[in-house]
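Discussion board: Methods & Data

I've been asked by a reviewer to show the raw model output for two of the constructs in my manuscript, not just the figures. I'm not sure how much to include, so I'm pasting the format here to get opinions. Each protein appears as its amino acid sequence followed by a line of discrete structure tokens. Is this the kind of thing reviewers expect to see in a supplement, or should I convert it first? Here is construct A:
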Amino acid sequence: MRFIGRRFHAVLDYMAGLLLIAAPWLFGFTSIAAATWVAVIIGVAIIGMSLFTDYEGGVVKAIPMSTHLAIDVFAGLVLAASPWLFGFADQFYGPHLILGILEAGAGLFTVSASQHAQPRRPGRQGSALRGTTH
């Protein structure tokens, strides 16, 4: 069941990206290089992907929403597993695990189709009902 709207997902994307970029300083793990780089790189990637996604928060609208959501799931799983993949789990893992699970969840539970009514094209359905001809 998908219950997160695309507009809200866009807000979450930008907030999550900024939080991940700032996380090493907010949560005090700047001394762990791998943990810092994973958070910053995934944060920058989320913001970059959001700017290029064809959804309410996108600027360029080049990446289909379904692709964006699949990448969210993959990036979330990598982020969640990164403390063990990159060997810093014995030092620090909380934010990576929690934010990774949330990122994957956002990808799984966001509506992929546009929630806006499609604009009516002239000359289609309704015009014959109004008695106009083209």
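Construct B, same format:
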Amino acid sequence: MKKQYKNIWIEKEKKDKLEKVNKVVTEKIPFKIIFNSYIVEAMEDNKSFGKNEFLTNLKIGDTIEIRMRKDGDKIRPLGMESYKKLKDIFINEKVPKDLRGEIPLILKDDEIVWASGVKKSESFKGEENKKGIKLIIRRQDEE
């Protein structure tokens, strides 16, 4: 039985479910990689749309790290001066508990740039209509 916010349901346990590997990938911008069940891409652009894209102030040649969350991770959310725990953000955004550990985090110099599809960082936001690096995330089955 599973409970998620206002919903309760019974789910058959999947024995053959593969464990997500908590790997760390380091890439130089621009790139396009498959990270677990996601496609993560970074390219030069001047616009971004929706929660699955983020226009940043990163530059071509910058080295970024992609990994899953760790205890104590913090991000400075868009529009805020202070940092907030990623755990609290996932709870407030109603991200299901079993998916929280699967969401790729994009980091530069050990600071979270983007909790992919969930929260963007004020420290790395780019200016609209000005060239920057656009980060894109999508599930592998959406391609």
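Answer (T.O., handling editor elsewhere):
This is acceptable in a supplement if you add a one-line summary per construct. For B, something like: Confidence is low (pLDDT under 50) at residues 15-19.
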